[in-house]
Specification:
The chain is α/β, with parallel strands linked by helices. About 40% of the residues lie in helices and about 15% in strands. Among the domains are: about 160 residues, 3-Layer(aba) Sandwich (Rossmann fold), CATH 3.40.50; about 290 residues, no CATH class.
Length: about 675
């Protein structure tokens, strides 16, 4: 009997991060291990995007075409699925992944919107897809295949959902696509475009956050892959010179001894091969001191990572609404200090738009998430309603007054509305009963501009000065800045451009157009609001720091903070000297009239700072080299995935002459001066 062809399709994200498709790799590897499937079918994997007409033509008389459907490729996958059905009407089109609905009303809507899809796979796909192929090979009714929904014209609903499939009891029953040749074939075909791998050491999540489908009742028990298998996969990663690993575990570090062992094996391979070089990790919730040991072990092998402290909110009412518990704030600060003392970077993760969060509690959370340590950052995400999550349900929408907008997701960071690529859609929360839209608008502006100015360090040192001398929160200054700049934009033209960029992105979202917009300073690419604002502000850093000086002067005067123009000049010039700008500065020695270097060095290292005196001081700046060929590339590389930035290191010099720039000569405020 001639074998029929089965195709598994993962179109990736359309970004420059093309990670080996672990999901379809595992599904393919297991299905091919089943004798009845291997006898009846040849299984092929199509990875990444291209000309859809050519992709469809490349399929040879397919019997089944399965699509891995996620938020970053769902609509692109459905467009290709429609074309496949038109070309091969007898082919069975299957959709699986997190974007496949589970609720009956959502399934009905899905089938109405996508008449070319025949079968939906729910939950873990490995056993289910293999069972589907076995039933097709035997010509059996699909009613006996657990874990699917399929069209059934004789039923009132038009479809039947079969009995739920129990989770895979032993993950080691799944052959590894790293080790059985599946990924070798992908590397042979797509290797020049592959930039990393998705990797999994355990599966499941014991938490039940309402905004996430990771920890639903189906997968709340965490199951593990065998260490020997993982060790062999690490060897494959190192030998194939894979730099980037995205770890798909929901809670790496939850099994301390085991995960420390895994980190050691990764470090050993990194020393042997020089790969992997970076590992993106979802650390266990409520991280504790033992996570430091694991991150340290990775660092020993020169595998970089950062520690995510996933707080999501600091408001107790919100944490109750989303079914989450966090560590206490004083414990969080001790934990951060322990990381930073060992030169391990951290970022605290929060979400804007969660139930029961008010403007005051959100902004308060931004301040609680921050310390003066330069290795400490935070990031907030806009709350996204994801398929199958509790928060996406009508019950939760009604209970918490959730208001949303559906917009183009622009995950690939290209221009929205482009004709050559279908746009993905995300549903974002723009208001709740606790935070109506006007309050959400204010939180959006203060949050993203705080990130650009404080978190991305473009105005970090002046803001720390205000915090220290006035006892204020940095968000107080940002609130005042937004109000002043929008009232009198002509007085602060460069800062007004940055503020205007964030406001424009906000309006695009509220008008249901897009969550991101093109940034000329990034070559027209899309950017998150804080990334875009930073690029705009530093697009003319001379003008930006001139505006910042004027804003500081005004704020200090209104706050009765007695500071000379010369001191404010020194503070702004110190800030500018440490900020990476284009063109890369050649000047490395900077002289000041005040002891600003000692002052800020003490603050960022958690020491009591000296009084700011008129004492001449100089610094030598270590200008980090860059491979960026132009201003656009430099601006795009300055931030790291929207989370962190590396400012220039400095050393306090001795024996230099004091600066001669007049405190009132604002033209002397240069980005590198």
């Amino acid at each position: 009997m001639k074998k029929r062809n089965v195709y598994l399709v993962d179109l990736g994200t359309a970004s420059n991060r093309n990670l080996m498709p672990l999901g379809v790799g595992l599904i393919s590897a297991y299905a091919a291990s089943r004798p009845a499937v291997a006898e009846a079918f040849d299984i092929n994997i199509h990875f990444l995007r291209g000309d859809n007409t050519e992709i469809v033509k490349s399929f040879d008389d397919p019997k089944v075409i399965g699509f891995a459907s996620y938020t970053w490729n769902f609509r692109a996958s459905m467009r290709l699925a429609a074309m496949c059905k038109a070309a091969y009407p007898n082919a069975i089109i299957v959709a699986g992944g997190y974007s496949v609905p589970k609720r009956p009303e959502r399934i009905a809507a899905f089938y109405e919107a996508h008449p070319y899809v025949d079968v939906l796979v729910h939950g873990e796909g490995e056993f289910t897809f293999a069972g589907l192929l076995e039933a097709i090979a035997r010509g059996e009714d699909l009613a006996g295949v657990q874990g699917i929904t399929y069209r059934h014209k004789d039923l009132p609903a038009g479809f039947r959902t079969t009995e739920r499939r129990e989770r895979i009891a032993d993950l080691n029953d799944l052959p590894s696509p790293f080790l059985n040749g599946t990924f070798d074939k992908i590397m042979a075909k797509y290797g020049s475009r592959v930039t990393g791998v998705v990797w999994e050491t355990n599966r499941g999540c014991p938490f039940a956050c309402t905004f996430c489908d990771w920890g639903n009742a189906d997968v709340n028990k965490v199951k593990q892959f065998a260490i020997d298998r993982l060790d062999a996969e690490i060897e494959w990663i190192g030998r194939n010179k894979i730099f980037y690993i995205y770890l798909a575990d929901a809670n790496f570090g939850i099994f301390y001894d085991r995960d420390l062992d895994i980190a050691g094996r990764l470090a050993a391979r990194s020393k042997k091969y020089g790969f992997p070089g970076f590992m993106a990790i979802n650390w266990t919730k409520n991280s504790h001191e033992r996570i430091i040991d694991i991150a340290d072990r990775l660092k020993e092998g020169n595998t970089s990572t950062s520690v995510t402290l996933a707080m999501q909110s600091f408001n107790m009412d919100t944490l109750g609404a989303i079914k989450r518990r966090n560590i206490k704030h004083d414990s969080l600060l001790k934990l951060k200090k322990a990381y930073h003392d060992r030169d391990l970077p951290t970022y605290t993760e929060m979400i804007l738009g969660l139930p029961a969060e008010t403007y005051e509690t959100f902004v308060g959370g931004l301040n609680q998430a921050s310390t003066a340590r330069l290795a400490d950052h935070w990031v907030f995400h806009l709350c996204t309603l994801l398929e199958n999550t509790a928060m996406e349900s009508q019950e939760h929408r009604d209970k918490y007054g959730i208001l949303t907008r559906k917009v183009e997701a622009a995950i690939a960071r290209r221009g929205y509305g482009e004709k050559d690529e279908v746009s993905e859609i995300e549903e974002l929360v723009v208001g709740t009963a606790a935070m109506p839209i006007p309050e959400w608008r204010k939180a959006y502006m203060v949050g993203y501009l705080s990130s650009a100015l404080y978190n991305f360090r473009s105005a970090f040192f002046p803001m720390r000065w205000l915090m220290r001398e006035l006892g204020i929160a940095y968000t107080d200054f940002v609130e005042s800045l937004v109000e002043e700049v929008e009232r009198r934009p002509v007085d602060y033209p460069q800062v007004a451009r940055g503020v205007g960029h964030v406001r424009n992105q906000q309006n695009l979202l509220l008008d249901s157009i897009a969550s991101l917009s093109p940034v000329p300073e990034l070559g027209g690419n899309l950017a998150l609001p804080h990334e875009g604002a930073l690029a705009v502000l530093l697009g003319d850093s001379v003008a930006f720091y001139r505006d910042l000086r004027k804003l500081l002067r005004r704020y200090a005067d209104e706050s009765n903070l007695h500071a000379t123009d010369a001191l404010i000049d020194d503070i702004v010039r110190y800030q500018a000297a440490r900020m990476p700008t284009w063109p890369v500065p050649s000047e490395t020695r900077h002289d000041f009239k005040h002891n600003v270097a000692d002052y800020f060095d003490a603050i960022v290292h958690g020491r009591e700072p000296p009084t700011l005196d008129r004492k001449a001081q100089s610094i030598d700046v270590a200008i980090a080299p860059t491979k960026a060929p132009d201003a656009f590339a430099f601006a795009g590389q300055r931030t790291r995935s929207g989370h962190t930035i590396k400012i220039y290191d400095v050393a306090i010099a001795s024996g230099a002459k004091p600066a001669t720039t007049s405190g009132r000569e604002t033209e002397g405020l240069r980005a590198t001066a």
